[in-house]
Amino acid sequence: MLNSLSGRFLILTTVFVMLAEVLIFVPSIARFREDFLLSRLERAQIASLALLADEMIDPSLEEELLRNAGVFNVVLRRDEARQLMLSAPIPQPVSATYDLRDATPLTLIRDAVVRLFDPEPQVIRVMGNPVREAGLLIEVTMETGELRAAMIDYGIRILILSAVISVITAALLFLAVRAILVRPIKRVVADMQAYAADPEDARRIISPRAGVTELREAEEALRSLETELTSALKQKERLAQLGAAVAKISHDLRNILTSAQLFTDRIEMSEDPAVQRMAPKLVNSITRAVNLCETTLAFGKAEEPAPRLARVDLSEVVGDVLASERLAIGEADVSLSEDIPGMMMLRADPEQLFRVVSNLVRNARQAIVATGKPGEISVSAREDDEAWYVRISDTGPGLPQKARDYLFRPFHGGTRKDGTGLGLAIAAELVRGHGGALTLDKSDDTGTVFTIRLPKGELGQQLEKS
User: What one-character-per-residue DSSP string does 284-297 give?
Assistant: First the structure.
């Protein structure tokens, strides 16, 4: 209970109420002391009236009057004359004098605190104004024991009353907090737990019911979040089913196209001029279809295998990529160049690095060839203390707007008008598997620049030591 919101609120309320009562107690006890002393002055003044009525009174009556007034003697100043009205033996010397006529609140509080914490009984002199203007000054001598006892009794009663008030106040606030805050919060938590058990069930989405403005806003925000999440989960399930179907279709279609590719190899050997003209186009179309099926199947896997890091000579990987591309360029006017520092060794998976660079260079080559204009593709590299950087640039027409809007997202547009975007998505995923990043630095009508960043990191340092 103490760890709950309402329990802690109960404790804090009790503490704060008690603190407030303590702050009130100090001036209250000072006021009580002042009233006590003023009452003694008033009683002493009444006792002195008997002497004014009859200048000769019996000593026993004088002693009784002083005892009832609670003082040892009474001095009254009338007409600038100071007169000892009543007197009795004082058991000890006067230790302090208090003038209540001009006492400030701070002075009264200070004197009250000193008296409350001083257990030794003392004799003090108290001066004040007579009531009803019956003189200029009244002065009494009294003992502090009864004063301190009365102050302690008053303080105990005040503290008990404060404790009762704080407990009642805290209890009422406790019940109010439970009704206004805790119960609605628990209801929201229960709705969240129910939704978490089956987030695809739209019936479990929370319905805002709180009366408190802040809680209702939280419930409405939660409802919006749950609605979007439920829709996303349903869409994900549909996409997963669609992906499974596409993977099956691609698998079977790849087998069919592979068989067709074998037939095209024989067709190319025909001496018929018409067949010789059409055969290369047919071969290219079937090859592109096979590549699309293989790419779709690769992307449809749950995830790419973890990279097997090794020391890789970047110049060898880039050389293999460019050699393959030179064969694919054919008669197109596309030049390839590289600027790789000699013996530049990277820590990467050689096969995955080859796929990334090959994807980017192939995309650049296809984009340039599609324009029918000459172009250049360049692969360069550099390194610093933190990472290696591989830069692939071209002088092609730049990425289509759709490709830039949905960069690295599959099936949302590729580097060509009829592209799927799978190549870039797979390349970005492979680079992320190395802990790096594939970024688009530039893409306009003057060309496109991609940068592969592979971090050196602790994993690579461990590999180098081994």
Answer: HHHHHHHHHHHHHH
The stretch 351-364 carries a mean pLDDT of 90
Q: How many CB atoms lie within 10 A of CB 132?
A: 8
- Angle at 456 (CA atoms; ends 455, 459), nearest 5 degrees: 105
Same domain, 227 and 246: yes
Tokens of 183: 């119960």
CB 349 within 8 A of CB 429: no
pLDDT greater at residue 69 or residue 346: 346
State whether 283 and 314 are in the same domain: no
Q: Which two three-digit tokens encode residue 431? A: 């680079």
Is this model's pTM higher than 0.85 or not? no
Comparing C-alpha atoms, which of 443, 313, 327, 318 is closest to residue 378?
A: 318
Residue 416 sits in a domain of what CATH number? 3.30.565.10
3-state secondary structure of 375: strand
Compute the distance between CA of residue 125 and CA of residue 55 in angstroms, rounded to an integer: 24
Mean pLDDT within 302-330: 82
> What is the band of 360 on the pLDDT scale with cuts at 50, 70, 90?
very high
Averaged pLDDT, 210-228: 84
Neighbours of 180 (CB within 10 A): 14
SS3 22: helix
How confident is the model over 263-276, as a mean pLDDT? Answer: 67
Structure confidence at residue 244 (pLDDT) = 63
Which amino acid, residue 236? Answer: K
Placement of tokens 């940068």 in the chain:
451
In whole angstroms, give the CA distance from residue 436 to residue 415. 22
Largest CA distance in the chain: 162
Q: How many domains does the chain have?
A: 3
- For residue 47, the enclosing domain spans 5-168
290 and 256 inside one domain = yes
CB 21 within 8 A of CB 162: yes
Query: How many whole angstroms separate alpha carbon 208 and alpha carbon 257?
Result: 56
**pLDDT at residue 299, as a whole number:** 56
- For the segment 378-396, the average pLDDT, to the nearest whole number, is 93
To which residue do tokens 């990472």 refer? 387
Q: Which two tokens stand for residue 406?
A: 């949905």
